[in-house]
Amino acid sequence: MLYFFAPLLTECWGPIRLLGSHLVLIGIGAILAAWLSWLALWRWRGSLPLDRGRAFTPNSTVAVGKPTGAGFIMVLSLIPVLFLVVPLSGKMLQVNDCLALAMLTGFLDDRSALPWGEVRKGLLDLGVAALASFVLCQGQPMTIWLPFVKGSYILTPVGFVLLGTALLWITMNATNCSDGVDGLAGSLTLLSLFSLGALLYGVIGHKKISAYLLLPHNPEGAAWAVLIFSAAGALAGYLWHNAEPSRMLMGDAGSRYLGLLLGIAVLASGNPFLVLVVAPVVLLNGGTGLAKLALLRTFRRLGFDTSPGPADSAAGAKGKRLVGVAPLLHKVRFPLHDHCRKNLGWSNAQVLMRFLLLQAFLTPLLIVLLFKVR
Q: Which residues contact 159 (CB under 8 A, 6 or more apart)?
């Protein structure tokens, strides 16, 4: 709104022209969203459902009784900021609808008396991911670029929707799986959003710099950056309350919103593999758990015994034994933050700091290598 009104109001007062600057809008959006999110969560945390804990998660009893689903309030406080600072197009409005839908499905699960099953949540995530992918391409061919390869490639609408749906589903669930240590999923995603926002504003959204680096230019890159940094501000307002010991949890309402936003920002950059660069620890922590679960269930359906016990145990009689594979998969706990706490004895603070250090070090290094080799 401010972006479109700035030229009209500049005649009344010259400095208003600054509201037409994407960089100024980024600053206004981030600060305003952070303040509103912090204030709204503080005032209305009592209206949130309470966490019931998870039997399979170490130290889950610590979270029992805490307000959860804080992502619902965080997103509601962010929406008016987005209308104020983001140069909204029809596609941007539809993207925000998809993000709100992802948040809403997560919040309904957070407040449900009986937690939703994996199949139900997985199908809902798949539907939201497919819808968001279609919205991004608007039924038109899309240009993408790949790491270490010059030039760009045109994807058909069907190809883009299939690729985008898979990517968005993975980022939604990997982010959700990383949400098990106070501040971990939010802090890692915050680093990812900062990286993506900077790339979309200063590289992909900049015509001369993108041409110098042989990257396809996205004219909407700066507008995407305003959206991303505003969401990062709202996330920072939540993290103020989520610092250990946390006063509230974002729940699926927050993790699914952030995971979808992360994937959408990656697709907006034009390179789906960029997710490996900006969110390496998120994918390693949460995505490996999804891979383990998929492998074990696939082997089980093929008639193999995937139990962790020895081959001569009673469980070993249920099917052909996977020598060495099943015990190895069971030896490492997933998400990896659970393995670090349970098997390595790390405290929550150690997990948070070490995971943040890894991503803060890896992302700039991988970005430099990505652009330099290209």
A: none
> At a CB cut-off of 8 Å and minimum separation 6, what does 155 contact?
141, 142, 143, 144, 163
Tell me the two tokens of residue 157. Answer: 């609408």
pLDDT in tens, 256-296: 999 999 999 999 999 999 999 999 999 999 888 788 777 77
Residue pair 282/226 in contact (Cβ under 8 Å)? The answer is: no
| C-alpha radius of gyration, the chain, whole number | 22
Helix (H, G, I), strand (E, B) or coil at 243: coil
Q: CA 176 from chain center: how many Å?
A: 8
Among candidate residues 268, 277, 264, the one with its CA nearest the CA of residue 147: 277
In terms of C-beta distances under 8 Å and separation of at least 24 residues, what long-range contacts does 363-366 make, across chains too? 363/191, 363/192, 363/195, 363/277, 363/278, 363/280, 366/276, 366/277, 366/280
d(CA 258, CA 275): 13
Amino acid in the structure at residue 260? L
Beta bridge partners of 153: 144
Please list, in sequence order, all residues whose beta carbon lies within 8 angstroms of the beta carbon of residue 215, skipping any fewer than 6 positions away.
145, 203, 204, 270, 374
d(CA 54, CA 252): 13
The pLDDT assigned to 55 comes to 45
Decide the pairing of beta strands 320-321 and 304-305: parallel
Write out the E strands in the chain: 142-144, 153-155, 304-305, 320-321
**Whole-angstrom distance, CA of residue 20 vs CA of residue 164:** 31
Q: CA 200 to CA 90: how far, in whole Å?
A: 19
Cα torsion at 175, 181, 183, 189 (round to 10°)?
-20
For 106-132, b/e burial (b = at least 16 CB within 10 A) is bbebbeeeeebeeeebeebbeebbbbb
SS3 sequence, 250-263? Answer: CHHHHHHHHHHHHH
Q: What does pTM read for this prediction?
A: 0.90
Cβ neighbours of residue 222 closer than 8 Å, sequence gap 6 or more: 22, 200, 201, 205
Per-residue pLDDT tens for 241-266? Answer: 999 889 999 999 999 999 999 999 99
* Beta carbons of 48 and 72 less than 8 angstroms apart: yes
